[in-house]
């Protein structure tokens, strides 16, 4: 049963220096119109096939959905409102950047059912923003927040730590200003250096210092102190929220819930039955290498990221498909569960150990290393486990 719907908007005004996401700078109105047409066709197909009847959360991400502009974005959201019973939807989020959202856009989207915005602030320090290659200034974040708050209480801010030239003082100021904005949810990400990005090239050329992992760890810890002192709680490795304002959509990714991703570069996690239904509905081009007859329990689908190819396919992109056995599915649920503050239950680990006996020993080892602790019948990440998350996730998924 598909409970989450993700729509990918792969366009931005400008790619940021650190960005390796499935997005591109685009100033061609015809290409963006064609993309919205293809995505709209995919939504209609999914609706006609009955695949959207159980949707609880909707998320428009990117890229920069707000960069589509009010006309295109309204047409997509209006179509969604016709295709899904929004009375059953618990959360409807649209991502936006401060430079491309205004009061009219917020007003229209709110009227069409959007009840949450996620704003890509990244920093409130203009020098750091320039180093990141962002095209907005701190004052635009404040203006965008004011527009959102006139209609919607529930909004999130993204912040990145460890950027070129960023001091702890600058970081603390960004945290303070994010809290002062009234954000109900704040996501904290350490800067990562990805090959092929402008920032990677700058570091390779020696014109920019690489991210300092120790400084990033200190900033992540400081964020935890500041945000939790303000009443937020860390419910996931990168996510803080006031009680009741946790991202329901993102939480589904870490809870083994089925979700459908539409658009160039979008990802899905589906049952075998729903994957077949998506193929029959024309949402994905069939993958001749996908064999569901060998004990597959769930299917990961990733759509081709080429927007030109997506436009030409009229919403039926080529996909890469990976099948997971029951054992792999249970290990993935444990791995993703350890991203959350609530961790995983002893019962869940015991159930997985019936299929993969080594998993019990892995959790014992993680506990001995101080990465995991036992708490009220659950394994939960420790503070060290948050900072060394890749060790935790790798140890569990390594059994797959």
C-alpha Rg, in Å?
A: 21 Å
Strands, total number: 17
Oligomer: single chain
**Which percent bin holds the helix content?**
40-55%
* Overall residue-averaged pLDDT value: 95
| Count of discrete alpha- or pi-helical segments spanning 4 or more residues | 16
Write the layout of secondary structure elements.
Blueprint: E1 2-9, E2 11-12, E3 24-25, H1 29-48, E4 57-62, H2 70-83, E5 91-96, H3 103-111, E6 116-122, H4 126-132, H5 138-149, E7 155-161, H6 168-180, E8 185-190, H7 198-205, H8 213-229, E9 233-236, E10 239-241, H9 248-253, E11 258-262, E12 267-270, H10 272-281, E13 296-303, H11 307-313, E14 319-325, H12 326-337, E15 344-345, H13 346-353, H14 358-368, E16 372-375, E17 378-381, H15 383-387, H16 389-397
Parallel strand pairs: 1-4, 1-11, 2-3, 4-5, 5-6, 6-7, 7-8
Antiparallel strand pairs: 8-10, 9-10, 12-13, 13-14, 15-17, 16-17
Helix pairs in contact: 1-2, 1-11, 2-3, 6-8, 12-16, 13-14
């Amino acid at each position: 049963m598909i409970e989450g719907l993700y729509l990918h908007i792969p366009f931005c005004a400008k790619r940021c220096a650190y960005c390796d996401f499935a997005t591109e700078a685009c100033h061609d109105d015809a290409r963006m119109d064609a993309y919205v047409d293809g995505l709209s066709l995919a939504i209609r197909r999914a609706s006609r096939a009955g695949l959207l009847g159980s949707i609880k959360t909707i998320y428009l991400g990117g890229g920069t959905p707000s960069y589509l502009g009010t006309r295109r974005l309204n047409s997509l959201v209006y179509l969604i409102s016709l295709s899904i019973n929004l009375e059953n939807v618990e959360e409807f989020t649209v991502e936006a950047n401060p430079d491309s959202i205004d009061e009219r856009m917020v007003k229209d989207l709110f009227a069409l059912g959007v009840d949450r915005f996620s704003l890509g602030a990244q920093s409130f320090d203009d020098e750091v923003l320039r180093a990141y290659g962002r095209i907005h200034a701190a004052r635009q974040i404040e203006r965008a927040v004011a527009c959102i708050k006139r209609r919607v209480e529930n909004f999130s801010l993204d912040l990145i730590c460890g950027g070129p030239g960023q001091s702890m003082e600058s970081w603390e100021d960004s945290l303070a200003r994010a809290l002062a904005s009234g954000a109900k949810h704040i996501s904290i990400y350490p800067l990562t250096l990805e090959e092929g990005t402008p920032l990677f090239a700058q570091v390779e050329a020696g014109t920019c210092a690489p991210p300092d992992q120790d400084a990033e760890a200190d900033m992540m810890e400081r964020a935890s102190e500041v945000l939790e002192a303000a009443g937020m709680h860390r419910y996931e490795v990168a996510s803080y929220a006031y009680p009741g304002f946790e991202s329901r959509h993102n939480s589904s990714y870490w809870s083994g819930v089925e979700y459908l991703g539409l658009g160039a570069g979008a990802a899905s996690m589906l049952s075998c039955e729903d994957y077949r239904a998506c193929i029959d509905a024309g949402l994905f081009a069939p993958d001749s290498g996908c064999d569901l007859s060998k004990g597959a329990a769930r299917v990961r689908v990733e759509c081709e990221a080429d927007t030109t190819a997506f436009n030409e396919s009229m919403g039926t992109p080529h996909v890469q498909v990976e099948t997971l056995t029951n054992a792999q599915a249970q290990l993935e649920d444990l791995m993703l569960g350890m991203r959350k503050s609530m961790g995983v239950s002893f019962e869940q680990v015991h159930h997985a150990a019936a299929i993969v006996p080594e998993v019990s020993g892995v959790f014992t080892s993680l506990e001995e290393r101080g990465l995991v602790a036992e708490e009220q019948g659950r394994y939960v990440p420790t503070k060290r486990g948050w900072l060394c998350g890749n060790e935790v996730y790798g140890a569990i998924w390594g059994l797959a």
